Amino acid sequence: MTSIGFETLIDDSLATITNIAQLKALVNKRIFSLINDFEEGKWQHSRFQNYLWDNIAQTALSERERAALINQSHSTLVAAARNLRLTDKDEVGQGSEIAEVFLYGVMRNHYKALPVVPKIFYKQNVQDNAKGADSVHIVVNEAGDDFSLWFGEAKFYNSIADARLDAVVSSVYASLDVGKLRKENSIITNVSDIDQLILAEPLRDKIKAALSSQVSIDHLKQKIHVPILIIHQCGDTSACAALSDEYKNQISAYHTDRAEAYFLRQLAGSSKIHKYNDIKFHLILFPVPNKKAIVDAFVGAVSYFKGVR
Q: Are 115 and 58 in contact (CB under 8 A)?
C-alpha cells in the first residue's frame, strides 16, 4: 500500500470542549490537516503529482480492470487516463478530478478504506451513476465483522474564504439527501467491486442487507462518515521555502480557524438533516502554493497518457 507521503499537522477534534454549545458544535467532527515538504527552497510539486498517479487507478478503474492490469504500471496509467477529463470548463471547479484522486489516496492510505465505487470510472461509463458523493468507500473494522460508509466531498479552490466554505456546506448537505443516499447504496450493492473487495461472505451479506432499499436510511446514519477534502491555494505556502516550525504553526492555526468557521456554518443548517448528530464529519485540508501550476502539470500528464498531442 502506498504511503500517504505527507506530514500530518492536525488529526483530532477541533478544540477542547468546555461548554454545551461547543459540545453541540464539535461532536462527531474532526480536522485532518496535511502539508507537503520543500526541497532546495521549493514546494515539492513532483511528490504531489506522483501521489496522484500512484493512486489514480483506485478511482478511474474498476476493481476488475485493476486486477487485469496488475504488475503493468504503464498500461494501468494509460487505462486510467482514458477515463479522466483533461480539465473542467468552469474556473471555480477546475481541478476537481485532482481533488477526487487525492481524496481516494487519503481514504486508502490513512483511513484504510476500500474503493467500492470508483467514481471517475462510473462518471465516464454510466453518467447517471456519477451524481452524488465524489467518493464512496467502505471501511471495515479491525475485527472484520462490521463496517462504516464514507461518502466524500472533494474540492480544489483558489482560497478557503468564507464564501467557498458556504459552497462546500451546500454541497455536503445536497449529498446527504435521502434520495441520493439511496442511489449511492444501490450502486454499491449492484456493482461487482464489492464482491471482489469484501472477501468474507458474512460481512458482505451484512453490508448488502444494511444497504437494502427496504431498510430505512435512519438506521444507517450512525455508520455514515463524510470526509470533506479541500485542497486550497495558500499564500503562506507560496511564500515559504522550508518546512519550518514557523510555517507549520502558521498553517496549523489557519486550518484550525477555517475548520471552526466551516463547522459553525454547517451546524447552522443542520436542521435540514434528520439525525444529523449521528453522522461523523472529517474536514481534510491541504495547502498548495499555486493551483494553476498543479492543474496544468496534471492536465499535461493526462494528455500524455491519453496520447493527446
A: yes
Q: Would residue 293 count as lying in a domain?
A: yes
Q: Rounded CA gap, 244 and 236, in Å?
A: 12
Give the whole-angstrom CA distance, residue 28 versus residue 119: 26
**What type of residue is 128?**
D
Q: Would 167 be classed as within a structural domain? A: yes
Domain-embedded: residue 1: no
pTM of the predicted model, to two decimals? 0.85
SS3 label, residue 270: helix
120: number of CA atoms within 13 Å, CB side?
A: 25
Average pLDDT on 54-64 reads 61
Q: Amino acid letter at 195?
A: D
- Label residue 300 by pLDDT band (50, 70, 90): confident
Span 98-139, pLDDT tens digits: 898 899 889 988 999 886 665 554 554 434 334 567 778 889
d(CA 124, CA 306): 14
**Residues forming beta bridges with residue 248, ordered by sequence position:** none
Per-residue pLDDT for 90 more than 50? no
Give 56's contacts (C-beta < 8 A, 6+ positions apart).
77, 80, 81, 84, 101
The parent domain of residue 18 ranges over 7-306
Look at the chain and report how many structural domains it folds into.
Answer: 1
User: Quick one: what percent of the chain has pLDDT higher than 90?
Assistant: 45
SS3 74: helix
Percentage of the chain with pLDDT > 70?
71
**44 DSSP 8-state letter:** -
- Does any domain span residue 2? no
Angle between helical axes of 245-268 and 162-175 (0-180°, round to 10): 50
Q: How many CB atoms lie within 10 A of CB 202?
A: 10
